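Weekly puzzle thread! Below is a chain. First person to post its structure in token form gets bragging rights.
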Amino acid sequence: MKKPTFACLVLAALAVMPVAQLGAEEFPEEPVIVQADLDGDGTAEMISRRKLGADNQLGTFYQVLVKDARGSVLWRSPEELDTEHPLAFGEWDFGISLPQFAADVDQDGTVELIAPAPQSDVSPTYFRMLKWTGTAFKPHQSKALTGKAQKGAAFRWSERPSSSSYWVEKWIGTSAEGGWVVKLASLAQSTDGERMMMAVAVLATKGDGFELVRWIETPEALGAGGDESAGVRPDSYRAKLSAADHANSTGVPLKNVLEVLRQDRANVHRGTHRDREDDVDVFFTTPENREAMAQMELRVVGGAKAESAILRGQPVVEVQISNDGLQVEIIEP
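Winning reply:
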């Protein structure tokens, strides 16, 4: 008798486990997760989510909402609790499928909302792409984007990608030249077996696909213990706060730690200045997220003395990103 697959077990669980659907007063709407100018008027619409329901074994379901600058709801996804539905969003025990990026990535004149399809193993990431019709996001495709790890290489959408190629694992943001900053992944054979390779690159739209135009972080293997030696971490990064980070773009000296941190991230992600010690984070890639730093709570390990050392010197710091704000610690004076 053929053993049931993991996916079959999940679907069977769905059939017998009721998911508790809770009201908005219990699960309030969460902060904006993606912004995009959907109608081309120069003002970004806000794409957020709110929790619909949760199950201790299966996970949490979300509803996605699109609002204009005044806060009026333009569209909301259906209150769907079926993981197989093309407009279901959630954090489930077999993977996460939540909006990750929104832009006109194929340059056809309409904005696409991109969310990873949930997966529980190390394999090419499939992305669900939804197109904005003017009034709603409609399912368009679910494919993986793969290509070779070299400048000028073509990346193409595929329903049957090769695991020997590099695949886009995460859409990070927009590059200074108007391309797309993405995190790439691949499995490589070594004397110790398979190793996970990671990289960060800029892709430019070309024809019905993309072209790799430059590296931000060249491919490197995961280090011991699963740390990413390429320096891309979703919840922390390392930075040297050098002289270029202590003044704004017009040369005016910056007077507090948050301003210095924001200038450092702007210098890294715009490509204007990057120190050897600077990691590439995946959160402060957009101007909107860097602007939001000004409103974040900041904790400097070491208090006023450490703050003074940051403002007066050029230390290397470790920055931890959490829902509560930022924590900064000097690791090299």
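Puzzle host: Confirmed. Bonus trivia for everyone else. The two ends are 64 Å apart (CA to CA).
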